[in-house]
Each structure stands twice: as structure tokens, then as C-alpha cells.
């Protein structure tokens, strides 16, 4: 059963990685054009980063906790 979850999370990881790259590029655009960071993108990027980290921990057998959507979305505290 774990193998099926790992395959599912491998696909989700690929999509999340693409989304994180898009957030990075959009955030760079905000900083270049406005001189300030976008707060919503900071939160989304931080959450995606933690989500990817949880996926990698699960896929490398360092955690038995299945990531979102089988658990809560990772909470992020933005400085």
C-alpha cells in the first residue's frame, strides 16, 4: 500500500515543484517592479516548500506521516 502512496506523492511532488518555481518567478517580478515582496506569495511559497519537504521525508522512509491531503497543510510563519 505504501508503494501506491509513494507513486501518488511522486506525481504530486512534480506538480508542487513546478508551482514552487512559478511562485519564485512571480515573486521576483513583484520585487523588481514594486520593490516589495508579496505577502500572499511568501505564505504560499513557504507552505509549498514545507509540503515538498514532507513529501521527500515520506518517500525516503524518514517519516510514516502521509503529507497533505492525508494530513493538514503545513503551517508557515513568515518573518
Q: How would you describe this protein?
A:
By secondary structure, this protein is an all-alpha fold. The chain has one domain (2-59). Helix content is 68%, strand content 0%. It is built from two helices and no strands. The chain has helices at residues 2-34, 39-59. Helix 1 (2-34) packs antiparallel against helix 2 (39-59). It is elongated. It starts with a helix and ends in a 20-residue tail after the last helix.
Q: Based on helices, strands and strand pairing, what is the structural class?
A: mainly alpha
Biggest pleated sheet: none
C-alpha Rg, in Å? Answer: 14 Å
What do the pLDDT scores average to?
91
Give the CA-CA distance, first to last residue. Answer: 39 Å
Tally of contiguous helical segments: 2
Q: Give the strand content.
A: under 5%
**What's the SSE pattern?**
HH
List the helices and strands and how they pair.
Elements: H1 2-34, H2 39-59
Helix pairs in contact: 1-2
Features of the shown structure:
79 residues; mainly alpha; 0% strand
Amino acid at each position: 500500500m505504501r508503494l501506491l502512496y509513494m507513486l501518488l506523492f511522486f506525481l504530486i511532488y512534480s506538480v508542487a515543484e513546478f508551482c514552487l518555481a512559478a511562485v519564485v518567478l512571480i515573486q521576483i517580478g513583484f520585487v523588481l517592479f514594486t520593490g516589495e515582496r508579496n505577502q500572499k506569495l511568501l505564505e504560499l511559497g513557504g507552505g509549498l516548500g514545507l509540503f515538498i519537504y514532507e513529501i521527500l521525508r515520506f518517500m525516503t522512509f524518514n517519516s510514516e506521516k502521509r503529507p497533505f491531503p492525508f494530513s493538514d497543510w503545513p503551517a508557515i510563519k513568515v518573518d
